[in-house]
Design brief:
40% of the residues lie in helices and 17% in strands. By secondary structure, it is α/β, with parallel strands linked by helices. It has two domains: 69 residues, 60s Ribosomal Protein L30, Chain: A, CATH 3.30.1330.30; 162 residues, 3-Layer(aba) Sandwich (Alpha/beta knot). The strands form two sheets. Strands 7-6-5-9-8-10 form a six-stranded parallel beta sheet, sandwiched between helices. Strands 1-4-2-3 form a four-stranded mixed beta sheet. The chain is elongated. The two termini are 27 Å apart.
Length: 274
């Protein structure tokens, strides 16, 4: 949860932060073992129903890998066209044939799975929703905090978000084995589904009532915005209320994963005191 800032010179702001996250993602994929390279490897993975975090294809290669792109999109895999030189940098084999996929480090769940987990435990649902968290380390840290706090799941959008790649799994420190993470095509629609199931959604923002004055014991969703930009307009409008973390220092904000942890453990404190 960070204060919204205007873009600065040098490529900062939302576009700059997404670009920096993509560059980091590219560097890290070159060092991981969860890459699938080449037409046959990627096609067979899709055919077997293996969950993929993302698919990259080289500009100008759509005619030869179009069937792979179409199948990936039908299976809900984010697809990105990029310069062939980028694939060359990512490739560990040097024989990517114009297509590279990143295998998901864990299977994605659904919103229904998250609600079922809460019902199975006999607990009021506690869910974290991430809007535009593009840094996989930040997402992994949020997932780790959510699991330790006993939350029932994390929801992320398919676009403009980090996925369950190797870097995220490492930051989550094993939490992906125990906590369902749902990847949805439309975050406001997922929020509407949660609200229909009785959840009250809190937007984490600097300007709002203190979390220490907010009842977090009821079925709740905590909505965390992206670094620097906060929540997108549609997501903010889909929330029921705003909640803030009191701050007394000179630094204007916490980062997203730290803010999520503070909010989650205040919910734990309140629920434990009932």
């Amino acid at each position: 949860m960070e204060q919204k800032r205007n873009p600065r010179p040098g490529g900062r702001g939302r576009r700059g932060s997404v670009y920096a996250a993509n560059e980091r993602y590219e560097r890290e994929t070159a060092e991981r073992e969860d890459l699938l390279e080449g037409k046959n490897a990627v096609w067979e993975a899709l055919s077997a129903g293996r969950q993929l975090d993302k698919l990259f294809f080289a500009s100008g290669s759509a005619s030869s890998v179009g069937h792979i792109i179409d199948r990936a999109r039908k299976q809900g895999v984010p697809v990105q066209e990029c310069d062939r030189r980028k694939l060359d940098r990512m490739s560990a084999t040097g024989a990517h044939q114009g297509v590279i996929a990143v295998a998901a480090a864990a299977r994605y769940a659904s919103v229904v799975d998250i609600l079922a987990l809460a019902a199975g435990r006999g607990e009021a649902p506690l869910v974290v929703l991430c809007d535009g968290i593009t840094d996989p380390h930040n997402l992994g840290a949020i997932i780790r905090s959510a699991e330790v706090a006993g939350a029932h799941g994390v929801v992320i959008p398919r676009r403009r978000s980090a996925g369950l790649n190797g870097a995220c799994a490492k930051a989550a420190a094993g939490a992906l084995e125990h906590l369902p993470v749902a990847r949805v095509s439309n975050l406001p629609a997922a929020m509407a589904e949660l609200k229909q199931n009785g959840l009250f959604l809190f937007a984490a923002d600097m300007h709002g009532p203190s979390l220490y004055e907010t009842d977090l014991t009821a079925p709740a969703g905590i909505v965390i915005g992206s670094e620097g930009e906060g929540l997108s307009r549609l997501v903010r409008e889909s929330c029921d209320a705003v909640v803030s973390i009191p701050q007394h220092g000179r630094i204007p904000s916490l980062n997203a994963s730290n803010a999520a942890a503070v909010l989650l453990f205040e919910a734990v404190r309140q629920r434990s005191a009932r």
